[in-house]
């Protein structure tokens, strides 16, 4: 049987230095992270001067080949099973492999996601604000990445993620989300690549990088895409608000209507803030995530 494990590519600079691990395609329906990884690798093959960069993209090859969020082999979401289990199901084995060979020993983990097929997300760089020392480091890397939105997640990390595993190993980490939807926008891809190059430049690993062009909007709150504003009915979610927009408490985000076109529920913003996520997949079941609003800092 062919290996289901991802390939880890490594590039060394001429001078010893930090090790940065970059993931893409943890979810197989997220194209930006994998393509950005390839472009970053192509650039670093000629320009990495100091340190080591390790790439695993696609991190979940069978899901990538099928363009699915979960594994077509065992149905598991790779971003929910870290740190993994070498003796577990295929997806748990991939997580264990990446924990052992990519995350451990790194000085920084960068996990490039996007909203995938089911969601729409503002282009953002997020980090965990848990342990003070790591939070300071991760927050500084997020600042250097300089995405249009920077999301500081307070409270205990959601389990099973790459960044929660990095946190438990004492390694700073950031992750990136983008518009997704099965579409890759060139400007988004350039933002991913430029943000990573700025971080490598800040670590003196490369000599030059694109200058930052955004004035990042900083937001806080839980970014767990399994939670947020949940549908209490089943039907068809029709959206009103756009990601990146400001909403006030009680503003309409969307409506769930049934197959006859009748209103099942109106979905309102429970708080003021920035719309960071809107559901893109129209058919919804009770319990599905519809939107996430984050408070502006
Ligand atoms: Zn993802």
Automatic annotation (TrEMBL):
Gene3D superfamilies: Zn peptidases. Residues 16-201 form the Succinylglutamate desuccinylase/Aspartoacylase catalytic domain. SUPFAM superfamilies: Zn-dependent exopeptidases. Its cofactor is Zn(2+). GO terms for molecular function: hydrolase activity, acting on carbon-nitrogen (but not peptide) bonds, in linear amides; hydrolase activity, acting on ester bonds; metal ion binding. Signal peptide: none annotated. The keyword Metal-binding applies. Keywords: Hydrolase, Metal-binding, Zinc. Pfam families: AstE_AspA_cat (PF24827). The keyword Zinc applies. CDD domains: M14_ASTE_ASPA_like. This is Unannotated protein. It comes from freshwater metagenome.
């Amino acid at each position: 049987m062919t290996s289901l494990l991802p390939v880890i590519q490594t590039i060394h600079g001429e001078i010893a230095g930090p090790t940065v691990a970059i993931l893409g395609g943890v979810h197989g329906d997220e194209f930006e992270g994998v393509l950005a990884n390839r472009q970053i690798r192509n650039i670093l093959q000629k320009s990495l001067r100091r340190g080591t960069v390790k790439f695993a993209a696609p991190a979940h090859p069978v899901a990538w080949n099928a363009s699915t969020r979960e594994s077509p082999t065992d149905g598991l979401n790779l971003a929910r099973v870290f740190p993994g289990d070498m003796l577990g199901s295929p997806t748990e084995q991939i997580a264990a492999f990446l924990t052992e060979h990519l995350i451990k020993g790194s000085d920084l983990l960068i996990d490039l996601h996007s909203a995938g097929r089911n969601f729409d997300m503002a282009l953002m760089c997020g980090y965990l604000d848990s342990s003070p020392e790591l939070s300071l480091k991760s927050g500084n890397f997020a600042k250097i990445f300089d995405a249009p939105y920077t999301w500081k997640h307070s409270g205990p990390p959601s389990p099973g993620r790459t960044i929660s595993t990095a946190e438990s190993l004492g390694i700073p980490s950031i992750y990136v989300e983008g518009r997704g939807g099965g579409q890759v926008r060139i400007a988004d891809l350039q933002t991913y690549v430029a943000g990573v190059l700025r971080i490598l430049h800040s670590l003196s690993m490369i000599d030059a990088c694109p200058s930052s062009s955004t004035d990042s909007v900083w937001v806080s709150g839980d970014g767990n895409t399994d939670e947020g504003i949940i549908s209490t009915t089943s039907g068809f979610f029709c959206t009103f608000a756009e990601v990146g927009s400001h909403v006030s408490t009680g503003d309409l985000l969307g409506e769930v209507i049934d197959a006859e076109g009748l209103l099942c529920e109106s979905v309102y913003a429970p708080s003021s803030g920035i719309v960071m996520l809107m559901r893109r997949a129209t058919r919804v079941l009770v319990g599905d995530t519809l939107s996430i609003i984050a408070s502006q800092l």
